[in-house]
Amino acid sequence: MATNQRLEPLLEQYDFATERLLTRLAGPSSDSGDGREVEVPPLTDDEYRWEPVEACWSVRRRTDGPGPGAVKLIGAGEWGRDGAPESPWPPPITTIAWRLDHLSETLAGRASHLGGDRTFDRTRWESRGDAAGAIEQFREAAAAWRRALLSVDESDHDRTGLSSYPYGSDAEETLPSMVWWENQEILHHGAEIALLRDLYAHRAR
């Protein structure tokens, strides 16, 4: 399906951001920024859940309960993501696990409520406690969101009410606005994840 001129650059940005994050997580290499490919070791479970400072928010076994400052573990299943009814200020430092799980959950949820069956419920989200599983979960959620975007007819791109996603302002936004918001989520959390990978690699030096 063809996209209109305003959506096309947003989709190109989305594809760039998701692919760059995936190569930064799973390797085997990534563009250093000047056209050179640098080797990227695959994310390990220890690095995925590494807490660089005290009182980090992360993804934890449900039997262990929420971390410092959190009041609940979001979702269902063996693992959950630290959370609270209201976002704390200042915000806590979060692990790669927390940031990647947050991205995957929002992508899967938005895909469900835009072009899917509209049944996504955050309370049933199942976080992954392992790095490989979390990367694959992100890959699948990113693909689902892109399919949802392409399922919208061009004549509806400027109409509000396309999405019933209940955890944001999507129901009041046009499609380009929704894409822009999710893009900036991937770009800024992706940059944070890349920095955490660098810090982890240099932690013993």
How does this model look, in words?
The chain has five helices and five strands; from the N terminus they run H-E-E-H-E-E-E-H-H-H. It has a single domain (7-201), classed as Four Helix Bundle (Hemerythrin (Met), subunit A) (Up-down Bundle), CATH 1.20.120. The longest helix is centred in the last third of the chain and has 27 residues, at 175-201. Strand 4 (72-74) and strand 5 (79-83) form a beta hairpin. The model has no long low-confidence stretch (mean pLDDT 94). It has helices at 7-26, 45-48, 96-114, 131-150, 175-201; strands at residues 29-31, 37-39, 59-61, 72-74, 79-83. The strands form two sheets. The protein has a three-stranded antiparallel beta sheet. Strands 1-2 form a two-stranded antiparallel ribbon.
Please list the strands of the largest sheet in the order they lie side by side: 3-5-4
CATH architecture: Up-down Bundle
Helix content: 40-55%
Give me the Rg, rounded: 17 Å
Q: How does the overall form come out from the CA principal axes?
A: globular
CATH topology: Four Helix Bundle (Hemerythrin (Met), subunit A)
